[in-house]
Automatic annotation (TrEMBL):
Domain of life, per lineage: Archaea
Domain VOC: 9-134, 157-280
Name of protein: Glyoxalase family protein
Pfam families the UniProt entry points to: Glyoxalase (PF00903)
Length: 323
């Protein structure tokens, strides 16, 4: 046991893309997520950092991307988040299959997992994604964005991530320390390696599940792979306590880093997956009004004085608009 407040679940997932316009078109228009922040990679200001989320950028809803255009194609394998899953309302998968047919999206047959129906597909960079039908409660914290997809079908934040691990034991212990509880195991469908999937549940309503699968599949960072998964530690105090708790697992968390919209601590869990602990605030509306989120290239902190140089090195992009 630990004195740290259990994590409510996933805060965000960050992946690697190729062409930035293709990435934006898919996640905004095809999947119907809102561009809530358009910025730069604060460790590599020569590339964008896009944040796609629900209408208000609620914690637990934002999928973010580094579009590194010149990077190689990645390979999903051990030591990575292999699947990122989103919640959609019950009965909406027919809508999504029709939409994927219309937009030419590569999707696969539905599968049943822990009593839920899952629709696997890939984005244009080959990133494996899933939609999972769930009952959305009336008091759900997410706010659907409906410019391209109707409310009754709109994505409502994260459902889960799947970790592919060479030796899951230590990672399972780490997840327990972070406050996730093992809630079941079942045989994995044939589309993923490993013979047994173990599910852990966090305490919150959104992004609460982490699935663990054993595999020795080779991996390579690049287009179509996840860079890291961030877990919610809502306050600085929560984060400091969790940082101390995970340090007992022979991981080496960084000091807190200010990421402008949240404060972060990073570490690699025992199998090499990059984990982040992220605070809830100050949030995406700390530097833009809610109705203008994503409209401006935001250059946080020290980068503000380098705008001309930074913009000159970025590919021009256009945010999709409904006609």
């Amino acid at each position: 046991m630990t004195d740290a407040t259990p994590t409510p679940g996933i805060h965000h997932v960050t992946a690697v893309a190729g062409d930035p316009q293709q990435n934006m078109d898919f996640w905004v228009e095809t999947l119907g997520l809102r561009l809530v922040k358009r910025s730069i990679n604060q460790d590599d200001p020569s590339t964008y950092h896009f944040f796609f989320a629900d209408a208000e950028g609620t914690p637990g809803t934002s999928m973010t991307f580094f579009p590194w255009e010149n990077l190689q194609q990645g390979q999903v394998g051990t030591g990575q988040v292999s699947r990122t899953a989103f919640r959609v309302p019950e009965g909406s998968l027919d809508y999504w299959e029709d939409r994927f047919d219309e937009y030419g999206v590569d999707y696969h047959d539905r599968v049943d997992r822990f009593g839920e129906t899952v629709l696997p597909f890939r984005d244009p960079d080959g990133l494996p994604i899933e939609l999972v039908e769930v009952e959305i409660p009336d008091d759900d914290p997410t706010v659907p964005w409906t410019e391209f997809v109707p409310e009754e079908s709109a994505i409502r934040g994260f459902h889960s991530v799947t970790l592919w691990l060479a030796d899951p034991h230590q990672t399972k212990e780490l997840l327990r320390t972070m406050g996730l509880e093992e809630v079941g195991t079942e045989e994995s469908p044939g589309d993923t390696p490993g013979d047994e999937r173990t599910r852990f549940a966090a305490t919150g309503p959104v992004g609460k599940y982490v699935d663990v699968l054993p595999t020795i599949e080779g991996s390579r960072q690049g287009h179509g792979t996840v860079h890291h998964v961030a877990f919610q530690t809502p306050t600085d105090e929560d984060q400091a306590a969790m940082r101390k708790a995970v340090s007992t697992h022979s991981v080496r968390p960084t000091n807190q880093i200010n990421r402008h919209w949240f404060r972060s601590v990073y570490f690699r869990e025992p199998n090499g997956v990059l984990f982040e602990l992220a605070t809830s605030g100050p949030g995406y509306t700390s530097d833009e009004p809610l109705d203008e989120l994503g409209e401006t290239l935001i250059l946080p902190g020290k980068f503000g004085g380098q705008r001309e140089q930074i913009e000159a090195g970025l590919t021009d992009v256009t945010i999709p608009r409904k006609e």
